[in-house]
């Protein structure tokens, strides 16, 4: 099957140029100023359009069993929403229950995803308990067939997913040994649990209690602590859903010292804020409940976008984990029972374009970097993914920068009955989405096939995570797995004569 994309402007993370793109059997086979269509070739007219690498969302939770409920977007509806929004690959999380074998959980996730995905996907794995057996299984799943190169640790959700600091530290030592990336949900879960009890016993039961139980300081503290422990373990670290300036500052502090730390803001954190938690309508407020809470300071979304522009934060995700109004209402009398999670996978590309490029904060190349290329590099599937280049998978979006659309539950493809971006008018619309050479979204219609997406194994030892120089020439500190011998330093003796 062949496809010709004509007259567009190709945008990669490091270049923009006018060219045609020829696709054959799922791959990009030619890029040239003018390619003549042969008879029978399907032609996509991209005049006045950008031709960009399909979005990669490195953080989703399709059909996640969580807080007694199951997230509504399954791998079918969730990936349909993704491609309708210009995302052609997701990285979802295998999350074993406490004490469960990683291999058993892995098989369950593959069993859910493989028959349902309409676009390609990779997997990251959460470590929710610790022991020698888990360490051994971590080694197994970093092998080729399993395709796992990152492990996520939760410092929140006490009693459910949370690990203790010493478990997190030992887990990161194992990640460093396996040349895998550690990822962290950074909030102080123990203090949050105390605050929840206190708020409930003082009569605060509504969604405002959710944000009051989780002040920014508890995100910033956990982020700083995670970075500190990662540097002690000589392990590269990726902080998921950075939701506050304090957390971003903790990342910047450690990067300045040479640590390899990546920061991921999410669509919800870039395009909406925590004022919704105080809405008079209880259910409206509950829809926004996620952790960490949406910006507790209204200037944060714009600040996070500027940090992406400055390279202090690195890529965008969504944390797509959707619960409908009925599920949200199960926490009517107790905010700690509102299932945590929001939508994003369909709207991320448009809201990042609108709040980033249209707002004049980032350029189209940076947009491609933070929505696609950085994820491909960090998770080690670049340049197969994340680039318009000969030999790359034909995961391509024809992007209309001048068109607008209004986000609404009435037109979205999620399996839930609300959208946290409801009514937002955004500039930047994915007109055509192509997954490995097949048009899956065009003229506002899905043309997907369940199960047509493929699992993309992600091998360890990513160049950008473990090399001294990233491919824009910026020096990264190498991660020294072998520690230099410890040399005791003595504090300067106070001057006796002073
Ligand atoms: O509230 C959230 N973020 N739900 C999904 C699970 C997680 O913490 O990533
Ligand atoms: Zn999380
Ligand atoms: Zn609101
Ligand atoms: Zn998450």
UniProtKB/TrEMBL annotation:
**Domain Amidohydrolase-related, chain residue ranges per copy:** 50-440
**E.C. number:** 3.5.2.2
Post-translational modification as stated in the protein's UniProt record: Carbamylation allows a single lysine to coordinate two divalent metal cations.
**NCBIfam families per record:** D-hydantoinase
What protein family is recorded? Belongs to the metallo-dependent hydrolases superfamily. Hydantoinase/dihydropyrimidinase family.
Is Zinc among the key words of this record?
A: yes
Organism of derivation: Caenorhabditis briggsae
Using the record's annotations, give every residue carrying the modification N6-carboxylysine.
152
Gene Ontology BP terms: pyrimidine nucleobase catabolic process
- Co-factor(s): Zn(2+)
Protein name, UniProt field: dihydropyrimidinase
Subunit-structure text: Homotetramer.
Q: Which SUPFAM superfamilies match?
A: Composite domain of metallo-dependent hydrolases, Metallo-dependent hydrolases
């Amino acid at each position: 099957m062949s496809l010709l994309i004509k007259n567009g402007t190709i945008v990669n993370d490091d270049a923009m140029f006018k060219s045609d793109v020829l696709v054959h059997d799922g791959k990009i086979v030619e890029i040239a100023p003018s390619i003549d269509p042969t008879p029978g070739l399907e032609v996509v007219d991209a005049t006045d359009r950008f031709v960009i690498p399909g979005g990669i969302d490195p953080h989703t939770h399709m059909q996640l069993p969580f807080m007694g409920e199951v997230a509504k977007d399954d791998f079918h509806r969730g990936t349909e929403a993704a491609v309708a929004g210009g995302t052609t690959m997701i990285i979802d999380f295998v999350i074993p229950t406490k004490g469960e074998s990683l291999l058993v959980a892995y098989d369950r996730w593959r069993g859910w995803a493989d028959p349902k995905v309409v676009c390609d996907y990779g997997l990251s794995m959460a470590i929710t308990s610790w022991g020698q057996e888990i360490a051994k299984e971590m080694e197994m799943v970093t092998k080729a067939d399993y395709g796992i190169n990152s492990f996520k640790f939760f410092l929140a959700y006490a009693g459910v997913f949370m690990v203790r600091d010493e478990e997190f530290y030992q887990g990161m030592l194992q990640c460093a040994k396996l040349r895998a990336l550690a990822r962290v949900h950074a909030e102080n879960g123990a203090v949050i649990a105390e605050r929840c009890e206190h708020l409930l016993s003082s009569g605060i039961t509504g969604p405002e209690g959710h944000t009051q139980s989780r002040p920014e300081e508890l995100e910033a503290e956990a982020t700083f602590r995670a970075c500190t422990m990662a540097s002690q373990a000589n392990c590269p670290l990726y902080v998921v859903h950075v939701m506050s300036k304090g957390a971003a500052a903790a990342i910047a502090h450690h990067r300045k010292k040479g640590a390899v730390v990546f920061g991921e803001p999410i669509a919800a954190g870039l395009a909406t804020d925590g004022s919704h938690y105080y809405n008079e309508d209880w259910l409206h407020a509950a829809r926004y409940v996620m952790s960490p809470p949406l910006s507790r300071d209204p200037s944060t979304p714009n600040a996070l976008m500027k940090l992406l522009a400055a390279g202090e934060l690195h890529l965008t995700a969504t944390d797509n984990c959707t619960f409908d109004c009925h599920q949200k209402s199960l926490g009517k009398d107790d905010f700690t029972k509102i299932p945590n999670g929001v939508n994003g996978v369909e709207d991320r590309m448009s809201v990042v374009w609108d709040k980033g490029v249209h707002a004049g904060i980032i350029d189209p190349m940076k947009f491609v970097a933070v929505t696609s290329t950085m994820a491909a590099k960090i998770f080690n599937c670049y340049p197969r993914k994340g680039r318009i280049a000969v030999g790359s998978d034909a995961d391509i979006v024809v992007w209309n920068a001048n068109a607008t659309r209004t986000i609404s539950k009435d037109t979205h493809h999620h399996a839930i009955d609300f959208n946290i971006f409801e009514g937002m008018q955004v500039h930047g619309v994915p007109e055509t989405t192509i997954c490995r050479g097949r048009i899956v979204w065009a003229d506002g219609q899905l043309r997907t096939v369940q199960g047509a997406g493929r699992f993309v194994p992600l091998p360890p030892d990513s160049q950008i995570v473990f090399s001294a120089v990233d491919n824009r020439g910026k020096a990264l500190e190498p991660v020294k797995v072998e520690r230099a011998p410890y040399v005791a330093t003595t504090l300067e003796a106070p001057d006796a004569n002073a």
